[in-house]
Amino acid sequence: MSRKVEIRNNLASVKERIAVAAQKAQRDLSEITLVVVTKTFEVGDLEILYELGEREFGENRDQEASKKVEQLPDDINWHFQGQIQSNKLKSICKWADFIHSVDQIKYAQIISDQCQTKPKSIFLQVSLDTPVESRGGVDPVKLENLALDISELPGVVIAGLMAVAPMNNEGVEAFKRVQMIHSNFKHKFAQAKLLSAGMSGDFETAVLYGATHLRIGSSILGNR
Prior knowledge:
This protein is of the alpha/beta class. It is 44% helix and 18% strand.
């Protein structure tokens, strides 16, 4: 089986599973965005995805992603999803259309400084872990204050929230929780309509609980 056939088949399978989950949740499929997580994979695989119609790619390393961006068409939306390092943010702002993992005001300030003329869409990462903030993300009780501070910065648009399910296999409860957090958050930050949640192992559950952006890598591209 060629690599293109492999990716095409995997992609079709994932999209079918998303469609089934959306139907089960009585959601419109058009409100769910598949972000193919392409980190560590060669440009050739991304070119295949592009040929198959995909335009949303997720990366978590600045050095790797910035090289890929130069080699691929400019109508791709690039999503930075990794842990943020202050010294990489200036570069990330040059290529990433969305930054999924903002959890501190200092990062938002750097983004603001770099994006005065063209505002950057960000997701605020919420910690669902115990102990809280142990793998990144802001403590939910601090979320509103962080968002209020960021809202005062020019060049930054809070597009929504982002979360990673905890490692204790409480996926359903975690997604229920983040759905409730997001619902409450939207009452005060109406523009923050998006919810980035769900990966290869749990994206169907994420769809059931309101995720709008699914970050799926290995189910489509395999394991490296």
